[in-house]
Amino acid sequence: MRRKLSFLVTLWWIILCGVIGVCMLLFANRTPIVSEQENRTLAGMPQLSLESMQKGEISEQFESFLTDQFFLRSDIVDGMNSLKHLFSALTVDDLLNEEGEEVFVPQIEDAQTETAEELTEITAQEITQETIDGETPLTSDETVTGDVARVWLEHKDGTKDALFTYTKEDIQKAADVINTYAGLLPVGGTVHVMLVPRAQTVNKFALHLDTESGWSSEMETALETLLSSNVQVYNPYELFQSAILDGEYIYFRTDHHWTARGAYLAADAMLKGDGYQTIPLSDYQQKTIDGYLGSIYLHGRNAKLKELADEIEVFYPLLPAESFRVSNAYKKNQLPVIDDTQTNYLVFLGGTSGPYRVLESGYHTGRNMLMVCDSFGNSIAPFLLPYYDDVYMVDFRDEYYTRADARAGVKDYVRRLSIDDIYIVLSETNGIGSIYLNKLMPGNIN
Amino acid sequence: MVFSSLTFLLLFLPALLAVYFACRSIPLRNAVLLLGSLFFYAWGEPVFVLVMVFVTLSVYLGTLAFHAAKSQAWKRVLFTLTIIVALAALVYFKYAAFFTNQILGLFGVSYTMQAPRLPIGISFFTFQAISYVVDAYRGNVRVQKNFSRLLLYVSCFPQLIAGPIVQYADIEYELAERRTSLDDFTGGMRRFAIGLCKKVLIANILGEMLSTLPDAGASVSAGWLTSLIFALQIYFDFSAYSDMAIGLGRVLGFRYHENFRYPYISSSVSEFWRRWHISLGHFFREYVYFPLGGSRKGKYRTTFNLLFVWSLTGLWHGASWNFVLWGLYYGILIALEHGTFKYVVKRTPRPVGIALTLLAVLIGWALFYQTDLTSCARQLFAMFGVVKDGAAISFVGWMDTQTLYALRTYTVLPVIACVLCLPILPALERFMRQRIRLQRSAQLLSVVLLTLGVALSIMNLVSDSYNPFLYFRF
User: Which end of chain B has fewer CB atoms at under 10 Å, N or C?
Assistant: First the structure.
């Protein structure tokens, strides 16, 4: 009897598997669809062709179709991730600090906690920071002080941790690139530079206000001393400190970006640096979108992070502004400045689109600006509109930028588009020592 | 196609089993199984199916030819030719580029030959074909005159791509006459389900953990943990395939020998290899070591034979010096165990023996895991606390943050995997089955656990396809 029962259970399983398989063939979505959560196209039913059969590609494509279009896939992914999390010792805190970027991340020195006195004794040989170009690390006779710049997280007990360490060589390289950009501007033009921390870095401070007292960065000062007079560097750590201590919602929890409020703080500081009287945030019309789960959540789709869903605040431009994608020097597609049909970070400018964009502000100030940025630029751009006629934006990352489509480098932009000011707004991952500042920006000057 | 894919689990297997059992006669079942196996192979490797057919055909014709030869000399010549032709494809696809580049390097030629794409499972089906030729030559099996049966033996999908290496003699009878009882069907599918869970729920996730570990030279912990996690991953992965193959074979009416018997409880390296990939060890012993004279031709010849066979074993795993070194490493250890340390091994208490064997095996996996000798040396140095930078030698840290993070991410699984490496579950099952009152619970528990395991495996296969491209358009 029991043998028969086992047999029937086994048989039932095989039949169930077969039924699911046949249902997949008959009823699953056969056309490729874009998944908003994964930001990729989910595989559809592959087309049978002799070529794909010969190459054996059909098997991979068909397997992708089955897994991508599986019934209740999203719930299954959530369930499995929650289950896996049950077997791990990671806390929500760890998850919020999870790295998900595909680009260069400066080395985090988690294990280092010293008092200020002890720090002077540390030799640079202990610093293991490596740069992407493989430059020689600091030699043993170079001391920390003066030869590297660090970002510090300060604890209430008087000690501090180095969050990032930047070498003198990397800072010098970045300064050279920025100075080249400054040299392209007409007289009176300014380059504004802000290298922005990601939420993973901010969370190390903002989520631990019981133990952390503040943070500071030596990098901006070190950089500033190497720059031309028409370059202004802004220290986001200094800028955001009081907002974080006041518990302002300037960064998302589940996404690596700043919120529009964080972007406004940065825009306000940079514009004031240029002498502008800025428009208060309260003058903008605002809308809130609830239930946003960003890149940090999507990295592992952890159920615990789902409970920390963010809200997205958007602030509409004061005058009707128009935004266009520009390719081959022609305006191609009109894009939204605020796309409130979106429920994620794409709400800002509808996301990045290359090779470059122009935002026509509707104001007549007689000045134009170019922003060299990554995705952090998308949320800051709307706040720069009242001060410029046209805001040009370029993101040099390979996914977006091709010289052939752009038919221009920064030199051409400045000349042809009558650029007065350049804003460099990049996340820490695209900052000092990164491929962005070392290769992409210098590579796209001429 | 692989067993741990939705294509196999949801479509191929149910369809094949339905058609297979709908046929009543063995010739019809053989035909279904042959066509199914060719489709199974061709699904991912459509062109290379010809390579497999070519190897089988050459073996088939060669065997017929030397079987018909009148003189012993001709028989030997034809036998040698058959072996050479059977090995030709394996040598070309797997080793030609490696050896050519080594030879060109010796003469300072800068040209590098690109290795061709390797037909999946070529090492397995070639060895099966050779075992048939040798056994037929020795007269241990009858020459197979039916080509489709020989092709079925070589291509039979359960053992086609990852073994075990099935000797022709073991299934000669079953190719012509076999039956599947209810117990065979249930037991076979149960074994398959166990293998599937081992592969998808343990080996795959250990693989994820391995990929989150830092460079194995980062710290002492990173070095050892890389070896340990790899040891667990490769065991669960490989033994899972064997479980699935043995299970499916049983469902289809074939009895394959066990390929793994809890190798990590071995108290000597020799015992380890009697428990690890048993069919490969058997093949080399039967078809290389014994023909070379085995241990019957004196101490030095025995040592040479061991080292030669183990170099070949290493090379079988891959065309790289790492693998040769790995093979030689085991050859030396086994030679020492059989020679100088013979009595030490015998008198060592079993727990000490197990610990020492594990240590040796973990060091061995460092040789196997790393893809080049430099990384290999880096890991081995780090395992013993040393980092070598040029001529300078310094000490490496005990623990690094990335290793710690990986440990915190996958805290429980390595522990579960370590426990499952021990024969605890079979012992528990035996214990429960021996007690009548617990028999029913044992069976019910087994059904519930496996049902849950298969469901979770399918869910994990779906979940693994989740691949967010987070920064697109951001």
Answer: N
- Nearest-angstrom CA–CA distance, A257 and A200: 9
Q: What CA–CA distance (Å, rounded) separates B159 from A385?
A: 67
CA dist., res. A348 & res. A336, Å (int): 8
Q: How far is B470 from chain A (nearest CA, A)?
A: 6
Q: How many CB pairs under 8 A join A and B?
A: 161
Asked if A80 lies within 8 A of B460 by C-beta distance, the reply is yes
Q: What is the pTM of this model?
A: 0.77
Q: What is the 3-state secondary structure (H, E, C) of A8-61?
A: HHHHHHHHHHHHHHHHHHHHCCCCCEEECCCCEEECCCCCCCHHHHHHCHHHHH
Give the total number of structural domains in chain A: 2
Angle at A178 between CA A173 and CA A183, to 5 degrees: 125
* ipTM computed for the complex: 0.87
Q: Which residues of chain A does B247 touch, with a Cβ-Cβ cutoff of 8 Å?
A: none
**A265 lies in a domain?**
yes
8 Å CB contact between B394 and B352: no
Q: Which of A87, A91, A292, A378 to mutate to test the interface with B (most CBs of B within 10 A)?
A: A87
Percentage of chain B lying above the pLDDT 90 cut: 69
Q: Is A165 helix (H, G, I), strand (E, B) or coil?
A: strand
Residue span of the structural domain in which A247 resides:
167-443
Question: What ranges in A69-167 are assigned the alpha helix state H?
Answer: 73-86, 92-96, 116-119, 144-147
CB atoms inside a 10 Å sphere around CB A39: 20
What are B275-329's pLDDT values in tens digits?
Answer: 999 999 999 999 999 999 888 888 889 999 999 999 999 999 989 899 999 999 9
CB of A117 within 8 Å of any CB in chain B?
Answer: no
Between CA A372 and CA A256 the distance in angstroms is: 19
Tens digit of each residue's pLDDT (9 = 90 or more) over B237-281: 999 999 999 999 999 999 999 999 999 999 999 999 999 999 999
Residues of B in contact with A20 (CB under 8 A): 10
Cβ distance of A295 and B474 shorter than 8 Å? yes
Look at residue A97 and tell me if it is in a domain.
no
HSE toward the beta carbon, residue B61, CA cutoff 13 A:
8
Specify if A98 maps to a domain. Answer: no
Q: Consecutive sets of 10 residues in chain A, 446 residues long: mean pLDDT of each?
A: 79 93 92 71 84 80 91 88 84 67 36 37 32 33 59 92 91 96 95 94 88 93 94 96 94 93 97 92 94 85 82 95 90 89 90 90 95 95 96 91 89 94 94 92 92
pLDDT for residue B390 is more than 80: no
CB within 8 Å: A77 and B410: no
| Active site members of B | 317
Residue (of B153, B191, B201) closest to B412 by Cα position: B201
Q: Measure the CA–CA gap between B13 and A157, rounded to whole angstroms.
A: 63
